[in-house]
Design goal:
alpha/beta; 9 helices; globular
Length: 251
């Protein structure tokens, strides 16, 4: 169970090699979290991530998980949750894709959508059902400000995050009053391996800053977290810009 400050004792990360997820795990392990499951495709990177957490004193284990293999989710993730009481699930997997390439390759665009949205719907529902059955827990979903309004430069990725964001909000409403807390996290541009080589957007942030915001959101039982917080005002304004004007903006 969580302590008085909202720190989970046990954590399951879907997308165990995510830099944001690992920054969050390190932050929580430094507080009180003692059991961590890192779910992802088996790889040296996944094992290295688990070893880092073990070096910090956590009981960290790896679990095979493929967002694109929805048929396996009930057995892998559902089975793990059925056998363990887990305080927090962090849904952190996703791919950025390549907008220019994906526009000319529909199958690549579909892979972005299936990973970021379809895979998240499958895994999210399985996790939500398990957390509801145990009567407590938090499901933290990494969304993006890219889902707030479609932009010419990344509308394939943005549309997948828009779907994920709407799904997570609806799931939070469905679970309201059950003891399960759903929190949607909307970072802006995050300096990470995924964005390496891209032009940095205004108000860029870091995995560590997102991790800090997640910890604060857990403590406050927030439903939506913006990183940095000022993006909430910026995106609220951008949502209402007329499309002819929006098309001319450098976004």
């Amino acid at each position: 169970m969580k302590d008085a400050f909202g720190t989970p004792q046990s954590l399951l990360i879907l997308g165990g090699t995510s830099e944001i997820a690992m920054a969050t795990a390190r932050r929580l392990v430094a507080r009180r979290t003692r059991k961590v499951w890192l779910a992802g495709r088996p790889s040296p990177a996944l094992e290295k991530a688990a070893a880092q957490l073990r070096d910090m004193g956590a009981d960290a284990r790896t679990v095979p998980f493929d967002a694109l293999d929805a048929e396996s989710h009930t057995e892998t993730i559902g089975g793990l949750l059925a056998d363990n009481d887990i305080d927090m699930v962090l849904l952190a997997f996703g791919i950025l894709g390549d907008q220019a390439r994906d526009e000319d390759n529909p199958l690549a665009a579909v892979r972005v959508a299936q990973t970021n949205y379809t895979g998240a719907v499958s895994a999210g529902l399985i996790c939500a059902r398990a957390l509801q059955a145990q009567g407590h827990g938090s499901l933290v979903v990494l969304s993006s400000v890219a889902g707030e309004r479609a932009r010419r430069s990344n509308f394939i990725y943005g549309s997948s995050k828009a779907g994920l964001d709407a799904f997570a909000q609806g799931l939070g409403d469905a679970l309201h009053g059950t003891g399960v807390h759903v929190m949607v996290v909307r970072p802006g541009f995050v300096r990470s391996k995924m964005t390496a080589g891209l032009d940095e957007a205004p108000m860029a942030t870091t995995p560590e800053a997102v991790a800090e915001a997640i910890e604060t959101g857990l403590r406050r039982r927030s439903e939506t977290v913006w990183v940095p917080g000022a993006l909430r005002v910026v995106m609220s304004a951008l949502r209402h810009v007329p499309r002819p004007v929006f098309r001319r903006l450098p976004v």
